[in-house]
Amino acid sequence: MQAFLDFETPVAELEGKIAELRALAQSDPKVSIADEVKALEKKSNKILADLYLNLTPWQKASVARHQDRPHALNYIEQLISDFTPLAGDRKFAEDEAIVGGLGRFQGEAVVVIGQEKGSTTESRLKHNFGMAKPEGYRKAVRLMEMADKFQLPVLSFVDTTGAYPGVDAEERGQAEAIARSTDCCLSLGVPLIAVIIGEGGSGGAIAIATANSVLMLEHAIYSVISPEGAASILWRDPARSKDAATALKITAQDLKKFGVIDEIIAEPLGGAHRVPAQAINATKEAIARTLESYSGLSAEVVRKQRRDKFMNIGRGL
């Protein structure tokens, strides 16, 4: 059953009427509902299109967090063939908030890293809601160093509210692990393509998103801090999260203007959670175009391009 967001109430009401008509037709086959259902569906799609054409940053945050939005493992399953997961950081433990391994993207060998939130209660607990601990970022470093050694491009799928803030993570060097992962991204001599598929939260995201090219789904968000966190710090009032979302410029459209991201990937009408296969296919096409643009470049050129990209963010504004 489709889960509707707060601002989608008009659409939910129409969908409810359509469901009632279909139930009536099932109970009485003599009842003709085709014309009425068609009219209601047309009206529903029009309202949905108008809503998503004018989403506020806070509404985009709600879409980015939708429970049915495709996660990293969905993208890996659909886009990566011969995927072989690799586990552990070789220092402390396995962190399932970050998944990764070897596979093939359209026949080309790649290393894949993704932040996995989980889609059921059990899987969310297993993956710690996509909030990685130090061992997760150290695993990411291990995978990136392996990619560099064997000259394999890296694909990262970013979807996290942020790194895990628990005491145990801090005791094991959370900040240091994030910094080393970010530094590893910058030092790679192979192309790194990052895709913000849901939430790109703070250093927890940038640790695997300091890429040659950063792609971002149309209704994803990417920010130094969550709107709720910013509201609590700036105004000491979580109720002002909507104001914080606007001030932070968290949307793909704003970030493209600032040069923080490189390409916006269009989502299906009503968001990626409505037609996941379409969103994943659009992502595949964007990754393929981007990877092709780095074909044949030397390690020195790849590193310089990445460094120049980040050094130029915000200049000329």
Q: Supply the number of helical segments.
A: 14
CATH superfamily of the largest domain: 2-enoyl-CoA Hydratase, Chain A, domain 1
Which segments are poorly predicted (pLDDT under 50) over 5 or more consecutive residues?
A: none
Number of strands: 8
Q: Estimate the global geometry from the Cα principal axes.
A: globular
Mean pLDDT: 93
- Please summarize the sheet with the most strands: 8 strands, mixed
Described by its quaternary structure, the protein is single chain
What percent strand? 15-25%
Helix content: 40-55%
Span from first to last CA?
Answer: 45 Å
The name CATH uses for the topology of the largest domain is 2-enoyl-CoA Hydratase, Chain A, domain 1
**CATH architecture field of the largest domain:** Alpha-Beta Complex
Domain count: 2
Instruction: Please provide the ordered H/E string of secondary-structure elements.
Output: HHHHEEEHHEHHEHEEHHHEHH
